[in-house]
Known about the structure:
Elements: H1 3-30, H2 35-57, H3 67-88, H4 93-100, H5 103-115, H6 121-141, H7 147-170, H8 176-198, H9 207-235, H10 237-243, H11 247-259, H12 265-282, H13 286-290
Helix pairs in contact: 1-4, 1-9, 1-11, 2-8, 2-9, 3-7, 3-8, 4-11, 5-7, 5-10, 6-12, 8-9, 9-10
Amino acid sequence: MRNITRGLLVVSIASLGYGALPVLAKLALAEGVEVLPLLVWRFVLGSGLVWAFVLATGRPRPPRGRVAGLCLLGVLYAGNAMCYMLGLDRLSASLATLLLFSYPAMTVLLARVWVGERLTSRRITALLLATAGCALTVGSGVRSGNLLGVGLVAVAVVLLATWVVRSHGVLKGLPPVSSTATVITSTAIVIALTAFATGGIGVPLAPAPLALLGAIGLFSTAIPVTAFLVGIQWIGPARAAIAATAEPAVSLTLAAFVLGERMSSGQWLGALLILAGVVWLRLERQPQAVDAHP
Length: 294
């Protein structure tokens, strides 16, 4: 399998896990789990699972000289995760998800400036489709939303785009799985320190919230973070960001069936435009996709 095919496959796997996150988080919040404790246990469990896999399979560790860069990625990811989850606590899962997916536009532009990725006509078209879709969904729902929640998710967008682009260079040449474990371990530490400073990390000791936290740690953290970072190395940050816009389809479907959320016709049109951008990007010719990422 060529890098483009493998990269799109693992980013699709990541999209499934990330797409389930807002719905699982909403269910956990409804069970009495607070935002920061939820995030602490999400990343503690996620990093523990990835490290267990590293140790069980004897995978190599990143060299000490590169650990500082990985920790910086963890700090960026912590900021993104906290802003997004605090925004999600104030918005519907559908609106928060679609707001977050304005990040491919910024990611593509940052990738052009920092990494030198070419803005091909196909990428620009896919970008415009995805951006127009996000604008439609946000425009249809933001008036009834919480402005603080919208602002928090907007900050999360900036941090996420920066994280995606920077991870491409920081992870280059490093073992992906142990590097991912290092990133999300530093994320867990940053969020835990914040949580201890503002009230602690306690959660309700009941089957439902504990099961939800476990699912978030495994299916919406350990697996998708690893898959997404590996995918970035194969197809680059710009294409990974746009390909990941398949994630809203997962979130919207689960939000409708599990949470009973409903969207306007304008938001559904926006979601279709986002998916159209993904399909159009997937049709990019293979030579263009791999020449910058051998």
